[in-house]
Amino acid sequence: MQPRNMSMSGVVDLAAVKAAGEAKQKAEEARARAARQQGGAGGAGAEGAAGAAGAAPVSLVIDVEEADFEQEVLQRSAEVPVVIDFWAEWCGPCKQLGPLLERLAHEYAGRFLLAKIDVDRNQALFQQFGVQGIPAVFAVVAGQALPLFQGAAPEQQVREVLDQLVQVAEQRFGITGISVEGGEDAGRAPAAPVVPEDPALAAAHSALDAGDLGGAVQAYRNVLADDPANTEAKLGLAQAELLQRVQGLDAARVRKEAAEAPADARAQLRAADLDLAGGHVEDAFGRLVETVRRTAGDDREAARVRLLELFEVVGHEDPRVVAARGALARVLF
Asked: Where is the segment annotated Disordered (predicted)?
């Protein structure tokens, strides 16, 4: 990942989100006016009491849903750059990048806000931003959005991108961020000590972050050769192998072939890989369960094994994995 040349040209169209948010805001304002008219002086007294109570502490890391995107991201981007982290619970690289972004949000102390969007809960935003895979990081400044980078990345490169974002926001838009004095960071406990990472596992993660998929696969296999129960290495290997399989695929062609030949196991395996890489977990699982049901012999075994591999990517505790495992058992037995 390299720092972008940030033209801030509004490469993502946020008009639909903004229009929906404005309509919602107008409705809320109308309800508020009606409540004030009914409440009379009592309402005014309540407002005064609220003002005396003081402003709420500033949150530097927020979870955002489609319903509050306009208010929490678009409106706030007029006073502070908002960095969006598209993530999912089943995504291993997300679990590497997310804590880093959260730590940097506190360290930068109001020069940007971090908005975390769970793609499984917010598919409309995921599609509107044109996200191809996760983790994916975007920025919104003065209502304009642009992609920053995709995938987990080394801390130094993430810092370079954030520094450039903060500089562009100030120089081109006059947006300098918000004050967090007395907010949630005041008196914040020191960060927990960092536990040194296994060098072999760190090398595997670095290869994956750099896009060296072949190197990452081999590095994770090396870790597992010495420590077969290493769950982090199992997850990393499954992710690297998935990315290796979808690399260079023509998505439109793959999906067309899968639709035209539902009994073609190889076509369904390729489409399932694309489904999962794009965040469509249940579609991927359902496709492979159905392929197991339709096929026999080697094709059936290939579909079953691929489904188990995708379970590793998502994580065995995920409820979608639990449900798909039950569906697979019903088809097999």
From this structure: 28-47
3-state secondary structure 7-30: CCCCCECCHHHHHHHHHHHHHHHH
> Domain map of the chain by residue range?
15-173, 199-245, 248-332
Q: Confirm or reject CATH 1.10.20.10 for domain 15-173, answering yes or no.
A: no
Annotated catalytic residue within 84, 94, 254, 324: 94
Can you give the pLDDT of all 333 residues of the chain as single tens digits? 433 444 444 444 444 444 444 544 544 555 555 555 555 444 444 344 344 344 445 689 999 999 899 889 988 998 999 999 999 988 888 888 999 999 999 999 999 999 999 999 888 888 888 887 888 999 998 888 888 888 887 888 899 999 999 988 888 778 888 877 544 444 444 444 445 567 888 888 888 877 889 999 999 999 999 999 888 888 889 889 999 999 989 999 999 999 999 999 999 999 999 999 888 889 999 999 999 999 999 999 999 999 999 998 887 778 888 899 999 999 988
Sequence-distant (6+) residues with CB within 8 A of 323 are: 285
Element holding 116 (H helix, E strand): strand 113-118
Q: Is 320 in the active site?
A: no
| Given the residues 73, 80, 88, 91, the one annotated as active site | 91
Q: Is 319 known to be catalytic? A: no
pTM greater than 0.70 (yes/no): no
Report the distance separating Cα 187 and Cα 67, nearest Å: 32
Rounded to 5 degrees, φ, ψ at 207 are -65, -40
